[in-house]
Specification:
globular; 26 strands; about 15% helix; eight-stranded antiparallel β-sheet; mainly beta
Amino acid sequence: MKGRESVKIKMLMSAALLSSALLWGAAAQAADTLLASEPELELKQGKVTAELWGDRLANGYAHDLLVIVKNKDNKVITAYQPSIKGGYNCLLQIVKPQGEEPAQLLVSAGQGDWRAPSEYRIISFADLKEVQEVFGVPESSGIVTQAELKDGKLQLSLLNGSSESVALDAGVKAEDGRVEYSGLHSLQPWDVDDDGVDELLASQRLTQGKTPLADIGVVWKRRADGEGWEALGTTIMTLAPAAQGNTVNDGAEMAAGTILPRRLVVRGGEATFPIFAGKDVEVQNKINKELWTANAGSMKKFFAGQADTAFKVMSAKENLLSVQLICGKTNFVHNYVNINPKTGELIKLSDILNTQDKDLLPLLNVLNTNKKVSIKALPDEWYIEGRNLFLISVVDTREEISGFDLGNLHKFLLKKELLNSKS
């Protein structure tokens, strides 16, 4: 394996003097599947495109990962093999570093389905001849280095050398002894203190069997000397048992890819938000842009300490992805993002129903069982779950939901495939 990996990098680096066509041929031989791309990476050479390639198996696992960086003329200017053996749902993200250093690249690779932790690496391109990882195996292994349950309390040793003892939530049933912990579940760059440099917000989950016990969150900042990371704050949030059937903050598998939950835990707040890892990289980028744009206001409130965030996948079908975004502390606001997973484009209600038909509104009012709502115009907020369309109206500052069987609206349905769309 190692011999093949070194050959890949040599192939790309020795190709530096070749034409762009030959360069692309070398890249294609080095790894056969484009897993992710980031076209907005700013280096000293200007704006470049970073691509993550790998050999993806039929089950979705990708190995022999390789990051290739190309300039605006589509020529490879450097390549780097992350110290990750492989993973699922691989993604790239930009990190703003300190000083005059060029932007860095965050690589993530899931180590199982959407419930599993991920391997994370941050790659610096300050010197294209000496590309290096500035966030590696020790940090990605997690915040917790040792954990056990004793007398109903979590006894924890943390990466920064400190020890903590925390009582479990009263409703959690767990036995004294071993507590499972693995690598980081989430890592999100964000300029917490508005100094132009991204901190890293990381979270890790502790479990016993299938029982979640706690989430551990930390805010890391790069040390002034550039060597390693220091913790600005660590938060331990014990978890209450979830109600049966509660799917808030659950990921979802669908034909086009996977919705992944990313969770941040800070003192006084928590935020869980969705990202998408798909089979088509261009569509993947489009969907993530739409999800982040729709959620950006809520995330700003979270980072300002004004709100928590959550999400729920309402539909994950071959023709429709519907996600509910939730924001608030005691009163919650719900917004809905509806996306075509084949194209990454937003779907409007007028793409679903013939809204120009004058008979539509009268029929909706006849079928509507929510007597608090009189539908005089189609609302902006809606979603589809199963075979039902739900319209969300605001009445006296309260959200009111009206549900309709799509079969009863077949006369107005423009996308009849939604009636039989596979999850």
